[in-house]
Specification:
Layout (H helix, E strand, L loop, with lengths): L1 E5 L10 H4 L6 E5 L5 E5 H11 L4 E6 L3 H7 L4 H9 L3 H15 L2 E6 L6 H6 L2 H4 L4 E5 L2 E4 L4 H13 L3 E7 L7 E9 L2 E9 L8 E9 L3 H6 L13 H9 L4 E5 L5 E4 L3 H15 L6
Parallel strand pairs: 1-4, 1-6, 4-5, 8-12
Antiparallel strand pairs: 2-3, 6-11, 7-13, 8-11, 9-10, 10-12
Helix pairs in contact: 4-5
Length: 288
Amino acid sequence: MKAVIITAGLGTRLLPVAKGTPKVMLPIFALGRNGKLCLKPVLQLVFEQLHDVGLEEFCFIVGRSKQIIEDYFTPDHDFLAHLRERKKTEQANEMEDFYKRVADSTIKFVNQPEQKGTGDAVYRAKNVTGNEPFLLHMGDDLVLSKENSHLKRLIRTFEKRKADAAFLVAKVEDPTSYGVISGKQIAKGLHKVSTIVYQPKKPPSNLSDVAAYILNANIYQEISNVKPLAESGEISLIPAIQSLIDKGGNVYAVELEPHEKRIDIGNAEKYREALNTSHQFFGGEEHR
């Protein structure tokens, strides 16, 4: 299974910092290979999680920050040598560990020239993923869990249920800003989705889609039929998923468990929360 990671968002709610630094490259706390707290870009954590659950082929959907992201995911052996010359052994080992993951992977960069929404971004991966299912991950939204339990559970659900689509959901205080689901709970933490609606004024539940999705190739046909949003002109992924459901597709929502923590850096306040949450998560006794 290939991974598609969307990184092309402009991050306007994080200006002015997002003008020079892509929001997916903003740092949060993580655990280094020496067991100590360190800082990593959100996008690096997303990549490492997917790599560590067995994915080896990656497609990054990039926009104006393409060069920054490409440079970061290109091993810099001169920089490693410089760190070792200066006796920065821990830092060199940390970067080398990341570079090994990169070297073990096949990475392609696909450009999204204009910001036309998540649906448009996903559609641009069509020639990379072909007729196979793929795992879609937002570059600025991730979940922290012990041994990446959230991703393993998502993959297991998709395969066991022979789904057309499966995605993570979490309970949120204000569902009006997200894609919100309704449906039937068929097991603890697992829902058969009957409706998913984007930014509803009257949410049918408080369960919102988050971070990661697994989609069959038939999603591309549904995206091609989605009409752009009236206000922004963007093409949303949510109506394409709803179209799958309307045609009898099997779509499942996998609810996050209490110990699994969502990291969202959509605006300044959420970024502050992301720093607090990641510091608490990786600074906990279970990671010592």
